[in-house]
Amino acid sequence: MFEEDTEKVVKLMTMLDFMITERKKILRGGNYKQYVEANGPKIPAVVVIFDNMSAFREKTDFAYDDFLIRLSKEGTSLGIYLVVTGQSFSMADIHTRIGENIETCFPLSYPERYAYMDFLHTAQFDIMPENGIKGRGLCVFEDRILEYQVALSVEAENDYERAEKLKEISENMRNVWSGAVARPIPMLPEKAVYSEYSALPLYRSQIDESSLIPVGYDMVSAASFSLDMREFFCYLITGAPRTGKTNFMRVFLQSVLKKDADICIIDNGKKELLIYEQKENVTYLDNEDAVLEYFGSELTPKFTARNKKKWALIGEEKEEDEIMDIMLKEERPLFIFITDLLEFAKMAYESEAGISSFMENLTEKGSLHNIYFVGEVSLNKIADVRYYTMFQNFASYQTGIHFGGKTDENPVMQFEYLEYKEISQKQPVGVGMIPGDRSYDGVKKIMVPMARK
Prior knowledge:
Layout: H1 6-27, H2 32-39, E1 46-50, H3 53-59, H4 65-74, E2 80-84, H5 96-99, H6 113-120, E3 136-141, E4 144-149, H7 159-176, H8 194-197, H9 201-208, E5 212-218, E6 224-228, E7 234-239, H10 245-257, E8 262-266, E9 282-285, H11 288-315, H12 320-330, E10 334-338, H13 341-350, H14 356-365, E11 371-378, H15 379-385, H16 389-396, E12 400-403, E13 431-433, E14 445-447
Parallel strand pairs: 1-2, 7-11, 7-12, 8-9, 8-10, 10-11
Antiparallel strand pairs: 3-4, 5-6, 5-14, 12-13, 13-14
């Protein structure tokens, strides 16, 4: 790729950042060499090449300096090797702090001795390469400074012809190779479908993490975006009609089905989630009597038992993150999907059984129980549902997603990080926006794949 390929550059950096995190978990404090000696080459070495570092830094407005410094410092121990070309270690070329982390240098064709001293990290040498010979320089070999000559990769009349020959050789190698290849830079698909999305390596690794639920593509990095169960309790899905809300709930549900969890579906009159009725570990409810029975015989006892455990842990002076870790480890997750929050609120407040007080208490104090509510409401129903205390509690967490854009029409979610001109912009069907305050710097928009394909 070229430094002008802004979209690809962003996605490459995100992929490398994830790779660093991924390998740290695998190596568990060890290094790549030790891992390969013990397990063989189960994870490949990765070589990242930047040709003309100064041009890359300038054209990307120095946005990746901190990350590249980190990569140069941590990469080798993780099996990620950085190769760069440039003219000097300086603030305008190869960043000085990157240079401090580069142990092996091959300087060539410099007329002054001090330039070689900078790259070789020593002044203890007496030789200088012969002038006027292309590809001639100095290098460190077995603790000695030696003169070396770079070999041409292929014979050619000029650089253009050489590049074309190398391209042909590379294509031939790719065509005959049947083994694993380098991980491709993720790109947003023209048409996102769940079958392809769920085949992504990152999706599978997120599913394997006990607290992560992958739900779509990050619009900036094209990487799989996941929700962390440690960070939400009531998850609100909003938007105008036919903007992708129910499809998002299906994708959410399908990812939860791949985890060791229980699911309760409270469906509306349209029975939009009926296709999941027969799935393992799913309780499907589509009428008031069934909902009231479930809440009385299943949810209330489960919540009561976990609430006692939560308060016992609080009594032991456990922090919230410690309590959540214990709940994730010892209690089976329960997800309750509600396809129409207005319809559900009317039932809760108007039924003779009177579960409104229970729901108000649960939505206010039910976090840290490994029980989660995922509810959907259309913008044209918010005016009616927002006056129910249960819904006010639900929306107060500001954890959720909004579809269709025009966030200025959403009175229950905050998008303070948006510029003024963005708040009235419409978004394509299936593109969801994550709420946040002015300081929010996480994923802001995701593309949700079609759940049924």
